[in-house]
Amino acid sequence: MCGIIGYVGNNYAPEILTNSLKKLEYRGYDSTGVALLDTNAKLTIQKSSGTVNNLKKNLEKYDVDSKIGIGHTRWATHGEPNNINAHPHTDCTKKISIVHNGIIENHQEIRNSLEKLGHKFLSQTDSECISHLIENYLDNNDDIEKAIIKTANKIKGANVVLVISNKHPNKIFCFRIGSAGGLIIAHGNDEMLVSSDIPAIIPYASNITYLSSNEIAIISSKKVEYKNIDGISISKKTTTLELNEESISKGEFKHFMLKEIHDQPQSMTDAIGSRVSFIDNKIKFEKFPFTDDEIKQFSKIILIGMGTSLHACMVAKSWFESITKIPTEVDNSSEFRYRDLILNENHLIISISQSGETADTIAAMEKFRPLNPKQITLSNSPKAQTSQIADYTIDIRAGIEIGVASTKTFMCSLTTLYLLSLFMAEKRNSLTKAKMNAKLSELAKLPGIISNMLDNQKQYKIIANKYYNYSNFLYLGRGLNYPLAMEGALKLKEISYIHAEGYPAGEMKHGPIALIDQNMPVVILIPKDKMLDKMLINLNEVKARKGTIIAIATENENYINNLAKDIIFIPKTSDDLTPIIMSIPMQFISYYIALNKECNIDMPRNLAKSVTVE
Ligand code: AGP
Q: Taking the complete model, does pTM exceed 0.85, yes or no?
Protein backbone atom coordinates (compact mmCIF):
# COMPACT_ATOMS: atom_id res chain seq x y z
CA MET A 1 0.00 0.00 0.00
CA CYS A 2 1.15 3.58 -0.61
CA GLY A 3 3.14 4.51 -3.67
CA ILE A 4 6.58 6.09 -3.41
CA ILE A 5 8.66 7.76 -6.09
CA GLY A 6 12.00 9.53 -6.31
CA TYR A 7 13.69 11.38 -9.16
CA VAL A 8 17.19 12.76 -9.66
CA GLY A 9 18.44 14.01 -13.03
CA ASN A 10 18.45 17.01 -15.33
CA ASN A 11 14.74 17.46 -15.85
CA TYR A 12 12.00 19.31 -14.03
CA ALA A 13 11.37 17.10 -10.98
CA PRO A 14 7.89 18.40 -9.96
CA GLU A 15 6.42 17.32 -13.27
CA ILE A 16 8.11 13.92 -13.33
CA LEU A 17 7.15 13.20 -9.73
CA THR A 18 3.50 14.15 -10.13
CA ASN A 19 3.17 12.26 -13.43
CA SER A 20 4.65 9.21 -11.77
CA LEU A 21 2.49 9.57 -8.66
CA LYS A 22 -0.58 9.57 -10.89
CA LYS A 23 0.48 6.14 -12.09
CA LEU A 24 0.95 4.88 -8.53
CA GLU A 25 -2.39 6.12 -7.26
CA TYR A 26 -3.89 2.62 -7.41
CA ARG A 27 -1.68 1.84 -4.38
CA GLY A 28 -3.36 4.44 -2.17
CA TYR A 29 -5.03 7.73 -2.83
CA ASP A 30 -6.18 9.47 0.31
CA SER A 31 -3.46 12.13 0.22
CA THR A 32 -0.29 12.88 -1.65
CA GLY A 33 2.82 15.03 -1.54
CA VAL A 34 6.31 15.79 -2.79
CA ALA A 35 9.56 17.09 -1.27
CA LEU A 36 11.83 18.98 -3.65
CA LEU A 37 15.37 20.30 -3.35
CA ASP A 38 15.89 23.36 -5.53
CA THR A 39 19.13 24.44 -7.18
CA ASN A 40 20.12 26.21 -3.93
CA ALA A 41 19.47 23.02 -1.96
CA LYS A 42 16.42 24.56 -0.31
CA LEU A 43 13.81 22.00 0.72
CA THR A 44 10.19 22.61 -0.31
CA ILE A 45 7.38 20.30 0.71
CA GLN A 46 3.92 20.38 -0.87
CA LYS A 47 1.06 18.11 0.23
CA SER A 48 -2.61 17.70 -0.59
CA SER A 49 -5.40 15.58 0.74
CA GLY A 50 -7.15 13.66 -2.02
CA THR A 51 -5.67 12.82 -5.37
CA VAL A 52 -2.55 13.85 -7.27
CA ASN A 53 -4.56 16.32 -9.38
CA ASN A 54 -5.01 18.46 -6.26
CA LEU A 55 -1.29 18.35 -5.62
CA LYS A 56 -0.52 19.30 -9.24
CA LYS A 57 -2.74 22.37 -8.95
CA ASN A 58 -1.00 23.41 -5.71
CA LEU A 59 2.44 22.95 -7.22
CA GLU A 60 1.60 25.13 -10.20
CA LYS A 61 1.46 28.09 -7.80
CA TYR A 62 5.10 27.57 -6.82
CA ASP A 63 7.67 27.38 -9.55
CA VAL A 64 10.33 25.35 -7.73
CA ASP A 65 13.38 24.95 -9.92
CA SER A 66 14.16 21.42 -8.84
CA LYS A 67 15.83 18.41 -10.41
CA ILE A 68 15.61 16.11 -7.41
CA GLY A 69 12.73 15.10 -5.21
CA ILE A 70 10.63 12.38 -3.61
CA GLY A 71 6.88 11.83 -3.64
CA HIS A 72 4.20 9.73 -2.01
CA THR A 73 0.59 8.71 -2.47
CA ARG A 74 -0.87 7.49 0.80
CA TRP A 75 -3.14 4.75 2.11
CA ALA A 76 -3.56 5.77 5.74
CA THR A 77 -2.56 3.39 8.52
CA HIS A 78 -1.70 5.76 11.40
CA GLY A 79 -3.56 9.03 11.49
CA GLU A 80 -6.49 10.12 9.39
CA PRO A 81 -6.05 11.22 5.79
CA ASN A 82 -5.29 14.93 5.87
CA ASN A 83 -2.58 17.39 4.85
CA ILE A 84 -0.60 17.04 8.05
CA ASN A 85 -0.45 13.26 7.96
CA ALA A 86 0.31 13.19 4.24
CA HIS A 87 3.94 12.42 3.33
CA PRO A 88 6.69 13.62 2.92
CA HIS A 89 7.58 14.19 6.57
CA THR A 90 10.51 16.13 7.90
CA ASP A 91 12.74 16.52 10.97
CA CYS A 92 12.78 19.41 13.46
CA THR A 93 15.33 21.35 11.41
CA LYS A 94 13.28 20.88 8.20
CA LYS A 95 16.40 19.78 6.36
CA ILE A 96 15.64 16.08 5.96
CA SER A 97 12.58 14.71 4.25
CA ILE A 98 11.27 11.16 3.96
CA VAL A 99 8.52 9.12 2.31
CA HIS A 100 7.59 5.74 3.72
CA ASN A 101 5.62 2.63 2.86
CA GLY A 102 4.97 0.05 5.60
CA ILE A 103 4.27 0.02 9.32
CA ILE A 104 6.83 0.81 12.01
CA GLU A 105 5.85 -1.61 14.74
CA ASN A 106 7.87 0.11 17.47
CA HIS A 107 6.94 3.68 16.45
CA GLN A 108 5.31 4.59 19.75
CA GLU A 109 8.37 3.63 21.74
CA ILE A 110 10.64 5.56 19.31
CA ARG A 111 8.36 8.59 19.37
CA ASN A 112 8.24 8.63 23.18
CA SER A 113 12.01 8.53 23.50
CA LEU A 114 12.55 11.15 20.78
CA GLU A 115 9.98 13.46 22.33
CA LYS A 116 11.83 13.16 25.62
CA LEU A 117 14.93 14.35 23.79
CA GLY A 118 13.01 17.40 22.59
CA HIS A 119 11.89 16.36 19.10
CA LYS A 120 8.60 17.95 18.02
CA PHE A 121 6.27 15.71 16.06
CA LEU A 122 3.68 17.34 13.82
CA SER A 123 1.69 14.37 12.53
CA GLN A 124 -0.01 11.30 13.98
CA THR A 125 1.86 8.98 11.62
CA ASP A 126 4.32 6.25 12.49
CA SER A 127 6.38 7.45 9.49
CA GLU A 128 7.45 10.74 11.06
CA CYS A 129 9.74 8.87 13.49
CA ILE A 130 12.04 8.13 10.57
CA SER A 131 13.00 11.73 9.81
CA HIS A 132 13.45 12.51 13.52
CA LEU A 133 15.49 9.34 14.08
CA ILE A 134 17.81 10.26 11.23
CA GLU A 135 18.17 13.75 12.67
CA ASN A 136 18.89 12.24 16.06
CA TYR A 137 21.56 9.88 14.74
CA LEU A 138 23.39 12.56 12.75
CA ASP A 139 26.75 13.03 14.42
CA ASN A 140 29.03 16.03 14.25
CA ASN A 141 30.29 14.90 10.85
CA ASP A 142 26.73 14.97 9.50
CA ASP A 143 27.22 11.44 8.16
CA ILE A 144 23.72 10.85 6.84
CA GLU A 145 24.53 7.40 5.50
CA LYS A 146 25.51 6.22 8.97
CA ALA A 147 22.38 7.84 10.43
CA ILE A 148 20.18 6.09 7.86
CA ILE A 149 21.82 2.73 8.56
CA LYS A 150 21.21 3.19 12.30
CA THR A 151 17.60 4.17 11.58
CA ALA A 152 17.03 1.16 9.33
CA ASN A 153 18.35 -1.08 12.09
CA LYS A 154 16.25 0.59 14.77
CA ILE A 155 12.78 0.48 13.26
CA LYS A 156 10.86 -2.80 13.40
CA GLY A 157 8.44 -4.18 10.82
CA ALA A 158 8.37 -4.20 7.03
CA ASN A 159 9.32 -0.80 5.65
CA VAL A 160 10.50 0.96 2.50
CA VAL A 161 11.87 4.49 2.84
CA LEU A 162 13.28 7.26 0.61
CA VAL A 163 15.25 10.13 2.14
CA ILE A 164 16.58 13.44 0.81
CA SER A 165 18.57 16.03 2.70
CA ASN A 166 19.66 19.58 1.87
CA LYS A 167 23.22 18.61 2.87
CA HIS A 168 23.26 16.11 -0.04
CA PRO A 169 21.37 17.93 -2.78
CA ASN A 170 22.22 15.40 -5.50
CA LYS A 171 21.33 12.15 -3.77
CA ILE A 172 18.33 10.05 -2.83
CA PHE A 173 18.90 7.50 -0.10
CA CYS A 174 16.63 4.44 0.09
CA PHE A 175 16.30 1.37 2.20
CA ARG A 176 14.05 -1.62 2.37
CA ILE A 177 13.46 -3.95 5.31
CA GLY A 178 11.06 -6.87 4.88
CA SER A 179 8.16 -6.87 2.48
CA ALA A 180 6.30 -3.60 2.51
CA GLY A 181 5.90 -3.61 -1.25
CA GLY A 182 8.78 -3.49 -3.67
CA LEU A 183 11.27 -0.83 -4.63
CA ILE A 184 12.54 -0.55 -8.18
CA ILE A 185 15.41 1.62 -9.34
CA ALA A 186 15.23 2.71 -12.97
CA HIS A 187 18.42 3.73 -14.75
CA GLY A 188 17.92 6.41 -17.41
CA ASN A 189 20.31 8.64 -19.33
CA ASP A 190 21.82 10.87 -16.68
CA GLU A 191 18.70 10.44 -14.59
CA MET A 192 17.41 7.86 -12.13
CA LEU A 193 14.01 7.07 -10.70
CA VAL A 194 13.05 4.94 -7.77
CA SER A 195 9.51 3.68 -7.42
CA SER A 196 7.22 1.23 -5.65
CA ASP A 197 6.12 -0.22 -8.95
CA ILE A 198 6.76 -0.38 -12.65
CA PRO A 199 3.99 1.81 -14.14
CA ALA A 200 5.61 4.94 -12.74
CA ILE A 201 8.94 4.39 -14.45
CA ILE A 202 7.96 3.01 -17.85
CA PRO A 203 8.26 6.29 -19.77
CA TYR A 204 11.69 7.10 -18.36
CA ALA A 205 13.88 4.04 -18.25
CA SER A 206 14.01 0.42 -19.29
CA ASN A 207 16.94 -0.85 -17.20
CA ILE A 208 15.85 -1.64 -13.69
CA THR A 209 17.15 -3.06 -10.42
CA TYR A 210 14.99 -4.48 -7.63
CA LEU A 211 16.05 -3.54 -4.12
CA SER A 212 15.75 -6.54 -1.80
CA SER A 213 15.04 -6.67 1.90
CA ASN A 214 17.84 -5.35 4.14
CA GLU A 215 19.42 -3.35 1.36
CA ILE A 216 20.26 0.31 0.92
CA ALA A 217 20.70 2.31 -2.29
CA ILE A 218 22.33 5.68 -2.69
CA ILE A 219 21.13 7.15 -5.94
CA SER A 220 22.54 10.06 -7.91
CA SER A 221 21.82 11.00 -11.53
CA LYS A 222 24.70 8.95 -12.96
CA LYS A 223 25.19 6.07 -10.55
CA VAL A 224 23.68 3.94 -7.82
CA GLU A 225 25.63 2.46 -4.90
CA TYR A 226 24.15 -0.58 -3.18
CA LYS A 227 24.91 -1.63 0.37
CA ASN A 228 23.55 -4.09 2.84
CA ILE A 229 21.91 -2.94 6.02
CA ASP A 230 25.32 -2.99 7.77
CA GLY A 231 26.74 -0.55 5.23
CA ILE A 232 28.87 -3.10 3.31
CA SER A 233 28.91 -2.53 -0.47
CA ILE A 234 27.14 -5.16 -2.57
CA SER A 235 26.63 -5.60 -6.31
CA LYS A 236 23.24 -6.07 -7.90
CA LYS A 237 21.95 -7.20 -11.27
CA THR A 238 20.13 -4.90 -13.65
CA THR A 239 17.38 -6.29 -15.86
CA THR A 240 15.54 -4.96 -18.87
CA LEU A 241 11.92 -3.99 -18.68
CA GLU A 242 9.77 -5.19 -21.56
CA LEU A 243 6.72 -3.01 -21.14
CA ASN A 244 5.56 0.12 -22.89
CA GLU A 245 3.22 3.07 -22.24
CA GLU A 246 0.36 1.34 -24.05
CA SER A 247 0.26 -1.41 -21.44
CA ILE A 248 -0.57 1.17 -18.77
CA SER A 249 -3.05 3.32 -20.67
CA LYS A 250 -6.85 3.12 -20.69
CA GLY A 251 -6.92 3.50 -24.45
CA GLU A 252 -10.46 3.96 -25.74
CA PHE A 253 -12.06 2.81 -22.47
CA LYS A 254 -13.67 4.96 -19.81
CA HIS A 255 -12.06 3.01 -16.97
CA PHE A 256 -9.11 0.70 -16.49
CA MET A 257 -11.53 -1.88 -15.13
CA LEU A 258 -13.50 -1.89 -18.37
CA LYS A 259 -10.30 -2.12 -20.40
CA GLU A 260 -9.05 -4.96 -18.25
CA ILE A 261 -12.32 -6.86 -18.65
CA HIS A 262 -11.82 -6.51 -22.40
CA ASP A 263 -8.19 -7.62 -22.16
CA GLN A 264 -9.30 -11.03 -20.90
CA PRO A 265 -9.46 -13.06 -24.12
CA GLN A 266 -5.88 -12.01 -24.89
CA SER A 267 -4.64 -12.39 -21.31
CA MET A 268 -6.12 -15.85 -21.12
CA THR A 269 -4.51 -16.80 -24.42
CA ASP A 270 -1.19 -15.57 -23.01
CA ALA A 271 -1.71 -17.54 -19.79
CA ILE A 272 -2.26 -20.72 -21.79
CA GLY A 273 0.40 -19.72 -24.34
CA SER A 274 3.26 -22.05 -24.94
CA ARG A 275 2.39 -24.04 -21.83
CA VAL A 276 0.02 -26.22 -23.83
CA SER A 277 0.85 -28.10 -26.98
CA PHE A 278 -2.56 -28.68 -28.52
CA ILE A 279 -1.01 -31.03 -31.11
CA ASP A 280 -0.22 -33.77 -28.62
CA ASN A 281 -2.27 -32.31 -25.73
CA LYS A 282 0.70 -31.96 -23.41
CA ILE A 283 1.22 -29.31 -20.74
CA LYS A 284 4.62 -28.00 -19.81
CA PHE A 285 5.70 -25.63 -17.05
CA GLU A 286 9.18 -24.32 -17.82
CA LYS A 287 11.79 -25.42 -15.23
CA PHE A 288 9.18 -27.07 -12.99
CA PRO A 289 11.26 -27.92 -9.93
CA PHE A 290 9.59 -31.10 -8.68
CA THR A 291 10.22 -34.55 -10.13
CA ASP A 292 7.41 -36.80 -11.30
CA ASP A 293 8.03 -38.94 -8.22
CA GLU A 294 7.69 -35.93 -5.93
CA ILE A 295 4.43 -34.98 -7.64
CA LYS A 296 3.17 -38.55 -7.15
CA GLN A 297 4.09 -38.32 -3.46
CA PHE A 298 2.00 -35.21 -2.78
CA SER A 299 -0.49 -36.19 -0.10
CA LYS A 300 -2.09 -32.81 0.48
CA ILE A 301 -2.43 -29.46 -1.29
CA ILE A 302 -3.21 -26.26 0.60
CA LEU A 303 -4.28 -23.27 -1.46
CA ILE A 304 -3.93 -19.84 0.14
CA GLY A 305 -4.72 -16.27 -0.88
CA MET A 306 -6.80 -13.21 0.03
CA GLY A 307 -9.84 -11.55 -1.55
CA THR A 308 -10.27 -12.40 -5.20
CA SER A 309 -7.17 -14.61 -5.10
CA LEU A 310 -8.80 -16.59 -2.31
CA HIS A 311 -11.85 -17.09 -4.53
CA ALA A 312 -9.56 -18.45 -7.24
CA CYS A 313 -8.18 -20.87 -4.62
CA MET A 314 -11.71 -21.98 -3.75
CA VAL A 315 -12.49 -22.83 -7.38
CA ALA A 316 -9.17 -24.60 -7.82
CA LYS A 317 -9.76 -26.77 -4.75
CA SER A 318 -12.47 -28.63 -6.69
CA TRP A 319 -10.17 -29.04 -9.70
CA PHE A 320 -7.27 -30.41 -7.66
CA GLU A 321 -9.57 -32.84 -5.89
CA SER A 322 -11.43 -34.09 -8.93
CA ILE A 323 -8.71 -33.93 -11.57
CA THR A 324 -5.49 -34.50 -9.63
CA LYS A 325 -7.10 -36.63 -6.91
CA ILE A 326 -5.11 -35.02 -4.12
CA PRO A 327 -6.86 -34.04 -0.88
CA THR A 328 -6.97 -30.25 -1.02
CA GLU A 329 -7.83 -27.56 1.45
CA VAL A 330 -8.18 -23.79 1.10
CA ASP A 331 -7.43 -21.12 3.62
CA ASN A 332 -7.43 -17.39 3.84
CA SER A 333 -3.74 -16.44 4.25
CA SER A 334 -4.49 -14.22 7.25
CA GLU A 335 -5.98 -17.22 9.08
CA PHE A 336 -3.54 -19.78 7.74
CA ARG A 337 -0.54 -17.87 9.05
CA TYR A 338 -1.71 -18.31 12.63
CA ARG A 339 -2.58 -22.02 12.45
CA ASP A 340 -0.58 -24.74 14.19
CA LEU A 341 -0.11 -27.09 11.31
CA ILE A 342 1.71 -30.33 10.82
CA LEU A 343 3.26 -30.11 7.39
CA ASN A 344 5.95 -32.11 5.65
CA GLU A 345 7.78 -32.35 2.34
CA ASN A 346 4.89 -34.25 0.73
CA HIS A 347 2.58 -31.32 1.25
CA LEU A 348 2.26 -28.63 -1.39
CA ILE A 349 1.27 -25.06 -0.58
CA ILE A 350 0.00 -23.13 -3.59
CA SER A 351 -0.27 -19.42 -2.87
CA ILE A 352 -1.94 -16.94 -5.15
CA SER A 353 -1.19 -13.24 -5.11
CA GLN A 354 -1.46 -11.25 -8.30
CA SER A 355 0.66 -8.47 -6.78
CA GLY A 356 3.07 -10.81 -5.01
CA GLU A 357 3.02 -8.19 -2.24
CA THR A 358 0.12 -9.21 0.00
CA ALA A 359 1.51 -9.13 3.55
CA ASP A 360 -0.62 -11.98 4.92
CA THR A 361 0.17 -14.29 2.03
CA ILE A 362 3.89 -13.57 2.33
CA ALA A 363 3.80 -14.16 6.09
CA ALA A 364 1.87 -17.43 5.66
CA MET A 365 4.41 -18.66 3.11
CA GLU A 366 7.33 -17.68 5.35
CA LYS A 367 5.89 -19.17 8.50
CA PHE A 368 5.68 -22.73 7.26
CA ARG A 369 8.91 -22.75 5.28
CA PRO A 370 10.88 -24.43 8.11
CA LEU A 371 8.53 -27.44 7.91
CA ASN A 372 9.64 -27.95 4.30
CA PRO A 373 6.37 -28.21 2.42
CA LYS A 374 6.87 -27.65 -1.30
CA GLN A 375 5.69 -24.19 -2.35
CA ILE A 376 4.37 -22.89 -5.65
CA THR A 377 3.19 -19.32 -6.03
CA LEU A 378 1.08 -17.76 -8.77
CA SER A 379 1.76 -14.10 -9.45
CA ASN A 380 1.26 -11.39 -12.02
CA SER A 381 4.50 -9.84 -10.86
CA PRO A 382 6.92 -12.75 -10.84
CA LYS A 383 9.84 -10.82 -9.34
CA ALA A 384 7.81 -9.79 -6.28
CA GLN A 385 8.33 -10.99 -2.74
CA THR A 386 6.20 -14.15 -2.91
CA SER A 387 8.59 -15.47 -5.56
CA GLN A 388 11.55 -15.06 -3.24
CA ILE A 389 9.93 -17.53 -0.84
CA ALA A 390 8.35 -20.15 -3.10
CA ASP A 391 10.22 -23.00 -4.75
CA TYR A 392 8.57 -22.09 -8.01
CA THR A 393 6.68 -19.11 -9.43
CA ILE A 394 4.09 -19.34 -12.16
CA ASP A 395 3.56 -16.08 -14.01
CA ILE A 396 -0.16 -15.75 -14.65
CA ARG A 397 0.65 -13.43 -17.59
CA ALA A 398 -2.38 -11.15 -17.21
CA GLY A 399 -0.43 -8.00 -18.10
CA ILE A 400 -0.46 -4.96 -15.81
CA GLU A 401 -3.77 -4.54 -14.00
CA ILE A 402 -4.37 -0.99 -12.75
CA GLY A 403 -8.04 -1.10 -11.68
CA VAL A 404 -8.16 -1.88 -7.99
CA ALA A 405 -10.87 -4.49 -8.57
CA SER A 406 -9.21 -7.60 -9.92
CA THR A 407 -10.66 -8.87 -13.18
CA LYS A 408 -8.16 -10.26 -15.66
CA THR A 409 -5.81 -11.40 -12.90
CA PHE A 410 -8.67 -13.53 -11.50
CA MET A 411 -9.32 -15.08 -14.87
CA CYS A 412 -5.63 -15.74 -15.49
CA SER A 413 -5.17 -17.21 -12.00
CA LEU A 414 -8.04 -19.58 -12.68
CA THR A 415 -6.71 -20.54 -16.10
CA THR A 416 -3.23 -21.19 -14.71
CA LEU A 417 -4.55 -23.23 -11.79
CA TYR A 418 -6.60 -25.33 -14.17
CA LEU A 419 -3.50 -26.01 -16.27
CA LEU A 420 -1.52 -26.86 -13.15
CA SER A 421 -4.15 -29.37 -12.04
CA LEU A 422 -4.07 -31.02 -15.48
CA PHE A 423 -0.26 -31.00 -15.55
CA MET A 424 -0.09 -32.74 -12.17
CA ALA A 425 -2.87 -35.14 -13.15
CA GLU A 426 -0.79 -36.29 -16.10
CA LYS A 427 2.20 -36.96 -13.86
CA ARG A 428 0.03 -38.86 -11.39
CA ASN A 429 -1.93 -40.75 -14.05
CA SER A 430 -5.14 -39.58 -12.45
CA LEU A 431 -6.82 -38.70 -15.74
CA THR A 432 -7.26 -40.82 -18.84
CA LYS A 433 -5.76 -39.53 -22.06
CA ALA A 434 -9.25 -39.18 -23.55
CA LYS A 435 -10.39 -37.02 -20.64
CA MET A 436 -7.25 -34.91 -20.81
CA ASN A 437 -7.81 -34.33 -24.53
CA ALA A 438 -11.44 -33.38 -23.96
CA LYS A 439 -10.54 -30.94 -21.18
CA LEU A 440 -7.84 -29.24 -23.21
CA SER A 441 -10.02 -28.93 -26.26
CA GLU A 442 -12.74 -27.24 -24.15
CA LEU A 443 -10.10 -24.92 -22.69
CA ALA A 444 -8.87 -23.96 -26.16
CA LYS A 445 -12.35 -22.62 -26.97
CA LEU A 446 -12.54 -20.31 -23.94
CA PRO A 447 -10.78 -17.16 -25.24
CA GLY A 448 -13.20 -17.13 -28.20
CA ILE A 449 -16.21 -17.72 -25.96
CA ILE A 450 -15.16 -14.91 -23.64
CA SER A 451 -14.56 -12.59 -26.55
CA ASN A 452 -18.16 -13.18 -27.75
CA MET A 453 -19.46 -12.60 -24.22
CA LEU A 454 -17.85 -9.14 -24.22
CA ASP A 455 -19.96 -8.16 -27.23
CA ASN A 456 -23.18 -8.56 -25.30
CA GLN A 457 -23.16 -5.84 -22.65
CA LYS A 458 -26.68 -4.54 -23.17
CA GLN A 459 -28.14 -7.07 -20.74
CA TYR A 460 -25.89 -5.81 -17.94
CA LYS A 461 -26.82 -2.20 -18.57
CA ILE A 462 -30.51 -3.13 -18.29
CA ILE A 463 -29.90 -4.90 -14.98
CA ALA A 464 -27.81 -2.01 -13.68
CA ASN A 465 -30.46 0.58 -14.59
CA LYS A 466 -33.04 -1.44 -12.75
CA TYR A 467 -31.12 -2.30 -9.61
CA TYR A 468 -28.47 0.33 -8.92
CA ASN A 469 -30.56 1.95 -6.19
CA TYR A 470 -30.94 -1.19 -4.09
CA SER A 471 -28.95 -1.33 -0.86
CA ASN A 472 -28.39 -5.07 -0.41
CA PHE A 473 -27.72 -7.99 -2.72
CA LEU A 474 -27.42 -11.72 -2.12
CA TYR A 475 -25.41 -13.94 -4.47
CA LEU A 476 -26.02 -17.70 -4.41
CA GLY A 477 -24.12 -20.50 -6.12
CA ARG A 478 -23.18 -24.13 -5.60
CA GLY A 479 -20.13 -26.28 -6.22
CA LEU A 480 -17.66 -24.60 -8.54
CA ASN A 481 -19.89 -21.54 -8.74
CA TYR A 482 -20.14 -20.93 -5.01
CA PRO A 483 -16.77 -19.09 -5.04
CA LEU A 484 -18.10 -17.08 -7.99
CA ALA A 485 -21.06 -15.99 -5.87
CA MET A 486 -18.50 -14.77 -3.32
CA GLU A 487 -16.53 -13.05 -6.05
CA GLY A 488 -19.65 -11.38 -7.50
CA ALA A 489 -20.57 -10.03 -4.08
CA LEU A 490 -17.00 -8.82 -3.46
CA LYS A 491 -16.86 -7.00 -6.81
CA LEU A 492 -20.18 -5.27 -6.10
CA LYS A 493 -19.12 -4.18 -2.60
CA GLU A 494 -15.74 -2.96 -3.75
CA ILE A 495 -16.73 -0.67 -6.57
CA SER A 496 -20.37 0.28 -5.94
CA TYR A 497 -20.36 0.29 -2.09
CA ILE A 498 -23.54 -1.78 -2.08
CA HIS A 499 -23.74 -4.35 0.68
CA ALA A 500 -23.60 -7.81 -0.88
CA GLU A 501 -23.09 -11.32 0.45
CA GLY A 502 -22.09 -14.45 -1.41
CA TYR A 503 -23.34 -17.75 -0.03
CA PRO A 504 -23.33 -21.41 -0.96
CA ALA A 505 -26.97 -21.85 -2.00
CA GLY A 506 -27.41 -24.79 0.40
CA GLU A 507 -26.67 -22.46 3.29
CA MET A 508 -29.56 -20.15 2.42
CA LYS A 509 -32.14 -21.96 4.54
CA HIS A 510 -29.83 -21.74 7.53
CA GLY A 511 -30.22 -18.02 8.00
CA PRO A 512 -29.91 -15.75 4.96
CA ILE A 513 -33.42 -16.68 3.79
CA ALA A 514 -34.73 -14.46 6.59
CA LEU A 515 -33.47 -11.45 4.61
CA ILE A 516 -35.38 -12.23 1.45
CA ASP A 517 -38.14 -9.88 0.36
CA GLN A 518 -38.83 -7.74 -2.70
CA ASN A 519 -36.09 -5.31 -1.63
CA MET A 520 -33.37 -7.91 -1.81
CA PRO A 521 -32.16 -8.73 -5.31
CA VAL A 522 -30.83 -12.30 -5.30
CA VAL A 523 -28.30 -13.09 -8.01
CA ILE A 524 -28.64 -16.82 -8.59
CA LEU A 525 -25.80 -18.52 -10.43
CA ILE A 526 -27.68 -21.34 -12.12
CA PRO A 527 -25.83 -22.67 -15.15
CA LYS A 528 -26.84 -26.04 -16.63
CA ASP A 529 -24.40 -28.18 -14.68
CA LYS A 530 -24.63 -31.10 -12.28
CA MET A 531 -25.98 -28.80 -9.54
CA LEU A 532 -28.90 -27.53 -11.63
CA ASP A 533 -31.66 -29.48 -9.86
CA LYS A 534 -30.49 -28.30 -6.48
CA MET A 535 -30.20 -24.71 -7.64
CA LEU A 536 -33.73 -24.85 -9.07
CA ILE A 537 -34.99 -25.75 -5.60
CA ASN A 538 -33.18 -22.74 -4.13
CA LEU A 539 -34.48 -20.47 -6.86
CA ASN A 540 -38.07 -21.54 -6.19
CA GLU A 541 -37.60 -20.98 -2.49
CA VAL A 542 -36.50 -17.40 -3.17
CA LYS A 543 -39.41 -16.91 -5.57
CA ALA A 544 -41.92 -18.24 -3.02
CA ARG A 545 -40.77 -15.50 -0.65
CA LYS A 546 -41.19 -12.79 -3.26
CA GLY A 547 -37.45 -12.37 -3.63
CA THR A 548 -36.29 -10.43 -6.68
CA ILE A 549 -34.30 -12.87 -8.79
CA ILE A 550 -31.53 -12.11 -11.25
CA ALA A 551 -30.63 -15.50 -12.74
CA ILE A 552 -27.39 -16.25 -14.56
CA ALA A 553 -28.27 -19.22 -16.71
CA THR A 554 -27.03 -21.19 -19.70
CA GLU A 555 -28.19 -19.89 -23.08
CA ASN A 556 -30.31 -21.94 -25.49
CA GLU A 557 -31.89 -23.93 -22.67
CA ASN A 558 -35.44 -23.57 -21.44
CA TYR A 559 -35.13 -24.62 -17.80
CA ILE A 560 -35.17 -21.01 -16.55
CA ASN A 561 -37.69 -19.35 -18.87
CA ASN A 562 -40.65 -18.70 -16.61
CA LEU A 563 -38.82 -18.74 -13.34
CA ALA A 564 -37.11 -15.37 -13.36
CA LYS A 565 -37.88 -12.00 -14.93
CA ASP A 566 -34.27 -10.94 -15.16
CA ILE A 567 -32.02 -13.48 -16.77
CA ILE A 568 -28.46 -13.09 -17.99
CA PHE A 569 -27.42 -15.82 -20.37
CA ILE A 570 -23.94 -17.29 -20.56
CA PRO A 571 -22.66 -19.77 -23.15
CA LYS A 572 -22.43 -23.49 -22.46
CA THR A 573 -19.05 -24.88 -21.56
CA SER A 574 -17.88 -27.84 -19.47
CA ASP A 575 -18.84 -27.81 -15.78
CA ASP A 576 -15.17 -27.39 -14.87
CA LEU A 577 -14.77 -24.23 -16.92
CA THR A 578 -18.10 -22.59 -16.11
CA PRO A 579 -16.65 -20.59 -13.19
CA ILE A 580 -14.18 -18.97 -15.58
CA ILE A 581 -16.88 -17.64 -17.89
CA MET A 582 -19.15 -16.91 -14.91
CA SER A 583 -16.66 -14.24 -13.89
CA ILE A 584 -17.77 -12.06 -16.83
CA PRO A 585 -21.33 -11.40 -15.55
CA MET A 586 -19.93 -10.92 -12.04
CA GLN A 587 -17.62 -8.20 -13.40
CA PHE A 588 -20.12 -6.47 -15.68
CA ILE A 589 -23.00 -6.37 -13.17
CA SER A 590 -20.80 -4.59 -10.65
CA TYR A 591 -19.15 -2.36 -13.26
CA TYR A 592 -22.42 -1.04 -14.69
CA ILE A 593 -24.07 -0.62 -11.29
CA ALA A 594 -21.03 1.37 -10.09
CA LEU A 595 -21.14 3.40 -13.31
CA ASN A 596 -24.79 4.28 -12.70
CA LYS A 597 -23.92 5.29 -9.16
CA GLU A 598 -21.07 7.45 -10.47
CA CYS A 599 -18.58 5.73 -8.20
CA ASN A 600 -14.83 6.03 -8.57
CA ILE A 601 -14.54 2.66 -10.28
CA ASP A 602 -10.78 2.35 -10.68
CA MET A 603 -9.96 3.74 -7.25
CA PRO A 604 -12.74 2.75 -4.86
CA ARG A 605 -12.71 4.39 -1.45
CA ASN A 606 -10.54 2.89 1.28
CA LEU A 607 -9.02 0.26 -0.99
CA ALA A 608 -5.56 -0.21 -2.50
CA LYS A 609 -4.33 -2.62 -5.12
CA SER A 610 -1.52 -4.10 -3.05
CA VAL A 611 -2.22 -4.79 0.60
CA THR A 612 1.30 -4.72 1.93
CA VAL A 613 0.40 -4.41 5.61
CA GLU A 614 -1.37 -6.89 7.87
C1 AGP B 1 -10.05 -7.85 -5.54
O2 AGP B 1 -10.83 -7.15 -6.44
C3 AGP B 1 -9.27 -7.04 -4.60
N4 AGP B 1 -8.46 -6.09 -5.24
C5 AGP B 1 -8.59 -7.80 -3.48
O6 AGP B 1 -9.52 -8.61 -2.85
C7 AGP B 1 -7.36 -8.65 -3.88
O8 AGP B 1 -7.76 -9.74 -4.63
C9 AGP B 1 -6.63 -9.10 -2.61
O10 AGP B 1 -6.20 -7.96 -1.91
C11 AGP B 1 -5.46 -10.01 -2.90
O12 AGP B 1 -4.49 -9.39 -3.67
P13 AGP B 1 -3.30 -10.19 -4.30
O14 AGP B 1 -3.85 -11.12 -5.33
O15 AGP B 1 -2.40 -9.16 -4.90
O16 AGP B 1 -2.64 -10.95 -3.19
A: yes
